[in-house]
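Think of the structure tokens as a kind of shorthand, similar to the way a musician reads notation: each symbol stands for something richer, in this case the local conformation of the backbone. In the example below we present two proteins back to back. Begin with the first one, reading the sequence and then the tokens, and try to describe in your own words what changes along the chain.
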Amino acid sequence: MQTAYTVLILLMLVSVSRLVGRVIPLPLPLVQIAAGALLAWPTLGLHVALDPELFLFLFLPPLLFSDGWRMPKRALWQLRGPILTLAVGLVLFTVVGAGYFIHWLLPTIPLPVAFALAAVLSPTDAVAVSAISQNRLPTPLMHMLQGEALMNDASGLVTFKFALAAAVTGVFSLTSASLTFVAVALGGLAIGVALSWLVGRLRAWMIARGWDDPATHVVFMLLLPFAAYVLAERLGASGILSAVAAGMMQSWLDLLPRQTSTRLLNRSVWSLLEFAFNGLIFLLLGLQLPDIIKAVVSHEPTLWPTLFYRCLDVLAIFVALVLLRFIWVQSIWRLSVLLRRLRGKGELTQVPTARSCWLLTVGGVRGAVTLAGVMSVPMLMGAQAFPERDLLIFIAAGVILLSLVSACIALPLLLRGIEKSPDDKRRQEVREAWRKTAEAAIHSLESEEVVPQDAAQAALAAERKARIMSEYRHQLDVFNDSAEAQALAFQMDLLERRLRLKALRAQRLELYRLSRQHEIGDDVLREVLADLDLSEANLGQVR
């Protein structure tokens, strides 16, 4: 029962921290870390022992799967060059540079272990950056950070596993490791894509036979990242890349017919799952902080001097990571401009100013994946304790905290005076999509011939058909190219939505009255209320 109580307490804290984060002007991850540390205070004394392998298995696959699902694929392809240089080149640059620096700064950490620590410090968290910047970052920079976070989760953790294996076995060959890395990465991608495709085919087969219950299909989707991860690991491939590939593939397979209810439920379930898992990871970091600090200073004769010097080590490592990232971003960006000039392709759409380079640098916030990875470091190496495991976790936790705090301070300052320009291209695409879909609907209704049984039914059918077609013609007016026509249509649309919203709320109040007076049963209440809620959700925000 104690485990159940602990889980319920943590889930409650995740929800409460979201509410507190709206009052306190701090990013949500910092609030959750502080809440976890407060809960672990000796007077409250909540202690959670983490199994490294279980922690990695429970948290990483669904988070990486969700990242792959949400990532805009076209933006990922258009910015593939900068994203790959950040997600692969920068990871390797960080592993080598930061690895040697960590080993020089802390000689008690063996070089392979220092490389492993540098690798696990490489993945970034675009969700935390978005929360801190409040979506004020220029769209190309935000897409770069999102794509980098998606790809370097995989490249950083795969490199981390190789470095960890070298530390445990004491054997490392660059040629062998490079070939194995490519095989493991391609194998993971192939397994994720294949398994996701098979699940999509299975779901299509079920839908064709009328088995389209949304809950069943959502459960399949929830199990898919874990299945992709486990299958790839059992076959010697990368479970991390397999989960990412499964998510990216599933975003294409999610367009199956007769799946409207499933998509609505699936989005809600995954939003809840992502929020809960991210929150739990940062809460667990806060809960582990007292134990991490205690483990780091337990073998030392003095507490505060030792803790002070360890904090200085963390600060030095963090500064080294920031400098390495800035050097890489500045160099690669300017090199890409030079190459484009030599090839006669013109300038980049985003000019590499000092501010944009610092935005990309400070935007490399470390988060949930770094913590999940470092927590997976084994307790033992052979028959002996893993060297400086507690110190590794302390450094990772400190870097996460420093990156969050520095982003909270630096990003608002760097974004000062920058107004995010409206994405005119995207808005034009939205208008064009609505216009063309409305035209297709009208053409479909015009070609539809209803053959009723008598004249009265024919008149009613023609009236209903005309009413539906008028709604689609109204959509065409809303997305007309004329600015005056758009303004008038939007005003009428807003008025109509307000009237519909008022009518829906009146329906809901009457439904509640009928229920209170026992004129309808609970099952009828739930069924009608669900339809009313869905109709109101379709209206969107009405101001």
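Once you have a description of the first chain, move to the second and do the same.
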Amino acid sequence: MTLRNLVLMMMPLALVAAQEQKPAAEAKKEEAKKEESAPAGEKTWSGWVEAGARWRSDVAGSMDAYRSIVNLTGGFRLPSMDVSYQGAHKLLKTMRLTSGNWGDPFNTARLELSDEKYYRYASRYSNLLYYNFLPSFANPAAPAGYSLRSYDMNMRNFDHELTLLPNERFTPYLRVTRNWAGGRGITPLVVQGNEYALRTDLDWRQQDVVGGVRMNFTRSHLTIEHGSTDFGDGQRIFNTEPMRGSRGNVPVLGQLLSLTNGNQLYDVDGSSRITKVLFTAHPYDWVDLYGQVLYANPKTFSNFNQALAGSLYSTAPGLLFYSSGKDTVYGDARRPHTTGSFGMELRPVSRLRVREYYETDRQKTDTAGAFEAAFLKNTELAATIRNSYVDRLETSVHRQTVEALYDFSRKFTLRGGYRYEWGNALIRAGSLSITGPQERLEMQRHIGLAGFVARPWQKLTLNGSAEVSNGVKTYYRTSLQDYYRMKLNGRYEIRQDLLMTVVYNRMENKNPASGVDLEFKSQNTSVGLQYMPGGGKWVTVIADYNRSAIQSDIGYLILFPYQQAQSLYRDIAHTGMLLADITLPGSGVFKPKLTFGGSYVTTDGSRPSRFYQPHGKLSLPLHRNVHVFSEWRTYGYNQPSIFSYETFRTNMVMTGVRFVL
């Protein structure tokens, strides 16, 4: 065989091999291109953690007022944290842990765990160090630093919720919530008009356990849950030194009053079982139905014990002055409570929607109690008072609302409707009543509703609503009677990077009944601007201004000596806020960001005050995973009137590091 013949024989085999290898090579190249163009997978861990320290200057002015309003201190802080996990573990697909302001008086944390097919768990925690000791509270005329009511408490809240099979038709869930608070304070002990500011130990707790199931069907949803609530409230009041009380050195019938030993202890325990049913339905394309019913039967048991000693005054017949006394009170109450609501929306034609909503709330309280008081003069029993009572309180409130919405065009929607509110109550009559031991009250109101949404052109949106009421009867002197309220919102896009919003609210309420003469007015106007050139890539500016005014006039009676008086309250507030966020020139990762602005509140009227809070923050990215920040704040507060002793001012600087995962 010649070489030529051998080559001719091998050529077909080579061509076949080349044709087989070509698709394989091309497939590998295409696969490589797909891998290059495919987006990078999500990181298993993401988020950030911030850590820093705060320095605070000395507080100039009232430390009690500062702690009541601001209450921030220096030291190590964890300002914020947001850490997420995305994985493929069989039992844990996602996790997220967030927290804020750890080290400050109010801090929070939230943990979320889920595998969307099998479960979803969420846990929330918050802690509040509540301090309120404004010197003027409860007694504006008292000397600076003297208050009849104050609190220094620690409040904690836990909330856990576990949901099983969250995306299935039947979804069971369990929720457990626990809240408790404890601390100290000052509480007034009142003995025949003389008030003594005594030390107080406070203790409060509540626990809720709720379980239920959510049922999701094609055109309906049903939730059924049942749970329990257990709570307790306790307080102990005591003094450690002799006290003159609010009368000071003003004698009563020639004798000075004093309290040498005072102790008061009360404790309230209660429980309730709660059942709730909630449903929504969409049986046809033109109708939606929704409603809920809740039933609870709370029960409370209370005990009160008081022991006093000193030079005390009483209006008990033949007693006047006594040296010591003891009071004991026992009581319990039952209050079955039913509330429900039902609503529907009908769409009989394409542009018309008709809504009807009915609400009802009924409760009945039956109470029983016993009271015993013993008065002693120099260790000898001078008088004893015993009393027992059985009482009842019944209330029911109902509301029926019907309204229609019609879309005249894509640019204008009009809403109109009517609401009728009615109810009745059975309460204990006042001590001067001549109608008997109980009194029945009625409530009745007719309310007209109106509203609109207008889009005259693409950049402008307006919407408004109004209520006008003709109150026939009402329960309380300060309740809504003859009132109207209106609300207007506007949103205008001045330019592509400049947005303006305007909100206006107004309300007036009158009760011209003889002996009431109530007139209440409230008005609020706010204007906001948002400037984001280039989509906010380099600069963002947000500004807001708000003006609010409240006016209240109501008459009341002074029994001794008998006369009519008028209670007048006026308040006008101006609130402003400015926030600018600027990205400074830089290259690569190093792009500093400057944030500055602040807020202010000024009020005039019955209690003028000024509160300023300027601040600034600079963030420096040193690495894509490490950012350094520094923040400055000022708090300034004063009341240019008789409460000038509540003025304070302080400066704060915080520096820290943000670690980006």
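Compare your description with these statements about the second chain. Confidence is low (pLDDT under 50) at residues 1-29, 31-41.
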